[in-house]
Design goal:
The structure is a homotetramer. Chain A has helices spanning 38-48, 108-115, 131-146, 186-201, 229-238, 259-262, 332-353, and strands at residues 5-6, 11-16, 22-28, 65-67, 71-72, 75-76, 81-86, 151-159, 162-163, 208-215, 243-248, 266-269, 272-275, 283-284, 287-288, 293-299, 308-312, 318-322. By secondary structure, the first copy, chain A, is an alpha+beta fold. In chain A, the strands form six sheets. A five-stranded antiparallel β-sheet of chain A has the order 1-2-3-7-4, covered by helices on one side. A five-stranded antiparallel β-sheet of chain A has the order 9-8-10-16-11. Chain A has a two-stranded antiparallel sheet with strand order 5-6. In chain A, a hairpin with a 5-residue loop joins strand 17 (308-312) and strand 18 (318-322). The first copy, chain A, starts with a strand and ends in a 6-residue tail after the last helix. Chains A and B meet through strand 1, helix 2, helix 5, strand 11 and helix 6 of A and strand 1, helix 2, helix 5, strand 11 and helix 6 of B. Strand 11 of chain C pairs antiparallel with strand 11 of chain D, so a sheet runs across the interface.
């Protein structure tokens, strides 16, 4: 009901506020016998961590994860896996000046309208800090998927008006992690980084687009009606802070095509059924067809800016809001591990759900 | 698990295949005391019905709805509301020729891969016929929302490369239902209709974009983490057959903006807190802020075409598939009531869920 | 939320009132490839049907089931299976005299208090007629379980103060269906039947106890914490109209035992791990251990009696209620197929859930 | 799916093993604005804590609770409330001798059969230690219920063959906490305590019965079909370790009554509709009627005994198991706060669910 639980068979419950004692996640439904590598969970958190480069927020958080349950002698036991991350650098004093003010395009006003009160410190639970729990859980999902040869790779394909035009098959995705922007094209990455630096210098922020490719998913995952594979993926990605759009396969661009050009012809390749093109984005009728799954997601410019802005307070009076908190000038670089984690959670869920398809 | 249930508090279960005896839906969680107007449910089904104009499929279905339970003396009783629609024009002979063939970009192959067998008649449950159940349930949701002054209006804003450039505040949405395309701009509608006719003449199909506006939602609906209002809306819309993308508010276009331009300044207007711009699309932090909610959705060209296509059969052998079934040359006109229904279901769900927010 | 959905992986949604047009059920999550024998579904409904003997209600209902979806060429397709039963003998006039009166120990008052209105015809949805949908769905679950060698057998072990003292291993359960009471001991059955006849002659009703044995469940079904096998069974059985208690294994009688006597010693028998005694009732730590599962359930005397009773009406005024509807003098005989159906639904659910236990 | 989540609107997720680092719970769905008294949560844990008296297990656990999220300035914020309890006295060496042995009537064998591996230290998650998380969450539920004048009181009514015959209206429930057995009748309590001491001296264990009364529930809580109030209560109680039976209202004893004697006549008392008797146990048709709700639950003798027992090991070989762990000779005294907590969770859930009943 309150929406802090995600998934059906591989199900997570997250908790924690930006400036509370800790954030964390409980995974319910991870099958027993999975090798759980705590170092890998930590490495995924390190990819999302603030302060990892000059173009992300400088909040100091080590994000050290503790495994509290569900793992015995490095194997999952089938019991809930609880992962805990204590908040270290929670400077509550940073936020007292906005305790009764609504920051534009943040969740301050809507939280007050809904709950009648709110934990205003650092945005409370509406802070992107909440996504650390997603990344920790996603790391476990990734380990489960890896055993089946599935690989999820996200990257930044647009920052502001700088667009990486090449489709993913023409890119070397191994280069994604070689630059702080997480764009696999070094030249474009450099230009994106420059833009982010310039924007930050202006006390401003900028949006962008994230692309992702999932390879190795067998045909048959996803449910045919409401829980279509791409519908669940879409929800997962849209639930990430600042996400404003999701498209998969041919997406918005494909609408101008005719069916005769858009349809993906089947053929047999070395005994496997494949399609000659992949406008379907690896999903047909909501179910994976064995081809690569790929999608794009739009992220708005971060709402926290240094510039003074007009707003109102709890009493409806006009006030000026000035940004003081540490924040990202552009969420895209850090959105990469988060989007991968959310995709991994959806995949792990449908992996288990698919076990119920046949007698 | 199998994904034929949608919603949390206002929850529907749908069933039925294209060429089975009937399709239907059970609504669980409709509060008692709602006035249920069966004629309105029927009128919504009529908007989705095949054969309603020259540019949609000519399958003959009256889609006459029966209310089997949950309504007594025109009021909902709090018990499940079951709505049943018998299939009338289910010509199974039309489909025998593709019983063992996989139609390109349909769900034939993925169903076989997942289930090991499939009801091939008219696409079985992967047929868009399934959406009649959504529209019937959505009509009940609309009645619930209407009592709270909420109005959902979708329209066609793009067919192929014909784009209605005007944003919704500049349109007269009362004109949407005055033409078979369901585009509120008569001139654009005419050009769209011509394109659809031309495409159909070629035995081909074409995609498009649907836009929607929801007015009257109070601040405070939607949940802040996974079940963000727009994430649930996105999933709902993406679960509609042929949908390939979803964006809300500033969407993909907004990513090139800077935060200083994108942020929606709060001000007080006649005692109500409002925003001067609405790039947020009426949702902040996943929760409605009282402004209009608006979104766009991409629909691919229908996969069923008259032209012969290369494919494979169950045995992996190369075959030719020729379209013979009745189908839509463009799903957009009929997608309008379906998208409204899905949006209504999400809204009704979050309307009830919001009752749990405070002591 | 509104509780007309049951189960997690094998999930049913039921609908329908006693005197509405129809009742029915949608099964979501039945795996594809199950042979579905419609005649068997009908035969299970016939076991529950009113009018089948002289000691049950004489309402005339054929309870003819229609399969509306999810089955193609006698096999389940993985799509929702909708089963519909039209109400035939719904004499609404029988109930107008109690439209504003609260029958003692019925759900009339609580429905009014909860919903503000109610369908008073024949008890509406609180009527035991609702259980026909459970039996229909349970029949599908039984078919799924039968393929795995599982057999569920319930019988009547007490009516009023007539108690069948023998434990199930000393009984011939093949005799259960040979008498209208459904007690496997012919002599006890005869005495029970006489008691029921006598009670009915007095215009009164009587309660009893149902026992059940489930054979063939492999070790490993059930979840270890909240969804313990017996907890889910208990909920399922307690949700049947008139049920007041549930116990499994040693139950209430076992509390006076010492642990040294109650513990079930393990041993190996022909390569299989078994227990020498079975006070555990086939379930340890909420998970099946491969031994027989057995339980007992208490059913109160039916609330509908012919005698005049004191009560109040909607306005709180004192009134006299006189029973006129057709009703069962004792629910136990008809509770047998219903309890079996509910047990089958729990088993089918945990059968599918167990697929997620290991990598 | 894996069953570590309980509830629908007020929903908890628990985690943790007996000898892992910590156990805990996340509450999702607690409305904002509830005053959260951490001292009360701690006091409830103290009631369940091991080592509190001479007749319970002597494991040393302070069970100090930490509130990690969801509470700001002593008020719930509507965000998930995470409660954490570190394990202090987890002597893993105690259990190495049974690592590959199946203790009789424990969950050792069933866990191995289900998961293929298990955390054998102290029973892992099958340990009653898991219930501390339930009690912590239940304390929050109790605070929510207290604001509505609802009081839940459980007590021990039977230990072995010592039975407290008086029904609850004849007891002074304020005396329950005055003795270590938690029986409100001092004389009976003394005899029960003596029996427990004698049993422990024999290295044995003994079962018993718990009774509970819930006062102050308004009419209209509970759902009419599968989620009947008593069905959800029954599942909740049956999910507690060692519970073998549940009955409410007249229970098993009521089956011998006739309907004319069992029916609870309605009358009006000072403007309120009440019943003259309460065989219904405060619930009719699955919905509360405003009268006291009362139930009884059977608990078997604890499986851990000091005496040597025959069993088998993972390889199926015959072995002898000797009890060495610290354990309770009788679970009843500590079951009292646990059962109250589970009842509170069900009540809080249905309290919130009832908000959806009417327009």
């Amino acid at each position: 009901m309150a929406g802090n639980i995600f998934g059906t068979a591989f199900r997570i419950t997250t908790f924690g506020e930006s400036h509370g004692p800790a954030i964390g996640v409980v995974i319910d439904g991870c099958p027993a016998g999975l090798f759980v590598d705590e170092a890998f969970i930590q490495s995924e958190l390190d990819r999302r961590r603030p302060g990892q480069s000059a173009i992300v927020t400088q909040r100091k958080e080590e994000d050290k994860v503790q495994v509290l349950s569900g793992v015995f002698e490095s194997r999952s036991t089938g019991m809930p896996i609880a992962l805990l991350i204590y908040n270290a650098d929670a400077r509550s004093q940073d936020y007292s000046h906005i305790a009764d003010k609504f920051r534009p395009s943040h969740a301050d006003y809507t939280f007050s309208a809904k709950y009648g009160l709110r934990d205003y410190r650092g945005g409370g639970r509406s802070s992107a800090r909440e996504t650390a729990a997603r990344v920790a859980a996603g790391a476990v999902a990734k380990m489960l998927l890896k055993e089946q040869g599935i690989q999820i790779r996200a990257y930044v394909s647009q920052v502001g008006d700088i667009v990486l035009e090449k489709p993913y098959p023409e890119l070397n995705l191994d280069l994604t992690e070689t630059n702080p922007v997480r764009c696999p094209d070094p030249d474009t990455a450099r230009r994106m980084e420059e833009l982010i630096r310039a924007v930050r210098k202006d006390g401003d922020t900028i949006g962008g687009v994230l692309s992702a490719v999932i390879a190795g998913v067998p045909a048959g995952w996803g449910e045919p009606v409401f829980d279509k594979f791409h519908a669940d993926l879409g929800k997962a990605i849209l639930s990430i802070n600042a996400c404003k759009g999701f498209e998969y396969g041919s997406g918005f661009a494909g609408v101008a095509m005719r069916g005769s050009a858009h349809n993906d012809a089947f053929h047999t390749d070395a005994g496997h059924i494949k399609t000659r093109t992949n406008h379907s984005g690896g999903i047909q009728g909501g179910i994976s067809n064995g081809m690569d799954i790929y999608f794009r997601a739009a992220f708005k410019p971060v709402a926290t800016i240094v510039q003074a802005q007009e707003s109102v307070n709890e009493g409806g009076e006009t006030v000026t809001v000035e940004g003081k908190g540490r924040h990202d000038p552009c969420v895209l670089p850090r959105a990469v591990p988060i989007a991968e984690a959310m995709a991994a959670l959806v995949l792990a869920d449908h992996c288990l759900r698919a076990r119920g398809a046949r007698m």
